[in-house]
Amino acid sequence: MQAEPAPRAKKRFGQNFLVQPAVVQRIVAELGPSPGDALVEIGPGRGALTRALLAALAPDQKLQVIELDRELLPLLRDLAPAERLEVVHADALKVDFGELAATAGRRLRVVGNLPYNISTPLLFHLLAQAQAVEDMHFMLQREVVERIVAAPGSGTYGRLSVMLQAYCRVEMLFPVAPGNFYPVPKVDSAFLRLVPRRPAPIPPARQAGFAELVRQAFAQRRKTLANNFRGHLPAEIWQRLDIDPGRRAETLSVEDFFRLAEALDTPGA
After folding, report:
1. Calpha distance 202→41 (Å, rounded)
2. At 36, is the secondary structure helix, strand, or coil?
3. How far apart are CA 203 and CA 133, in angstroms?
4. Of 51, 120, 258, 266, which has the fewest CB atoms closer than 10 Å, so is most exposed?
């Protein structure tokens, strides 16, 4: 068996490096970098996608990459001069993307092969800063992508589907088999596009309440809405919205959740 080239993948970082050039080129094609883009790559690893992005950008464009693994930093910094490639040593879950966008003077285009162990928290971290983001393109575990893009009534539709679809247009672009990574993961992956909706469908002051509404609706998937909201939603709200409280949350559309949130926010509701 061929030895893995240094630096080695670290399990604690959930690293599975993308090694198939054809997949890398397809990612760049779907992203379609343009002059003037403020492009940020999360989790560049050994730089397979980083190299392709640098080649696709204009000579005067800068690419920022965010990498937590200190051992990978020298390798990444050797890929291009600092004026073309800024390597940020940081945990993406703690990065202020609003500050990066303010420095760039425009919204960010964010791309990356995300470690499976932080993908959902990172999506919610970026969702909270969606005003700073133009779009997002991520390689994720296929099961997670299928949950994100799921339609109401399907077995995979749930809290993650509603929360991401409420704030973004979502699209699974293509599946990626395990053999395109090193080390080879035990699961399939897929490449996902998320484009934040503008204006945001829910005002900032009501977003926490919307998140709690969705959380409570899916608190116990097999229970009806009436059971999950017992004591919180009076019968007249269900009647006014023409929503049968005997249904389960997985049958409600994102628009139904918007209507529920608005009804709850209406004085006297």
Report:
1. 28
2. coil
3. 17
4. 266
**Whose structure tokens read 């999950």?**
228
What is the spatial distance between Cα 92 and Cα 186, in angstroms, rounded to a whole number? Answer: 24
* pLDDT at res. 267: 42
> For residue 67, what are the β-bridge partners?
89
User: Cα(199)–Cα(138) distance, rounded to whole angstroms?
Assistant: 23
**Tokens standing for 140?**
């994720």
Q: How far apart are CA 67 and CA 72, in angstroms?
A: 8
Residue 237, amino acid? I
The number of residues in the chain equals 269
- Coil vs helix vs strand at 261: helix
Q: What pLDDT score was predicted for residue 16?
A: 82
Instruction: Calculate the average pLDDT of the chain.
Output: 91
Predicted TM-score of the model (pTM): 0.91
- Pairing status of strand 108-113 against strand 133-141: parallel
Q: Is 43 left (phi over 0), alpha (psi -120 to 50) or beta?
A: left
Cβ neighbors of 20 (< 8 A, separation 6 or more) are 179, 180, 181
Give the model's pLDDT for residue 209: 92
* Strands of the chain, DSSP E: 17-18, 38-42, 63-67, 85-89, 108-113, 133-141, 168-176, 181-182, 189-196
- Give the Cα separation of 47 and 184 in Å (integer): 17
Q: Is the pLDDT of residue 13 over 50?
A: no
Averaged pLDDT for residues 170-190: 95
Residue 231: HSE in the Cβ half-sphere, 13 Å Cα cutoff: 1
Provide the token pair at 235.
Answer: 């019968």
Q: Is the pLDDT at 57 greater than 80, yes or no?
A: yes
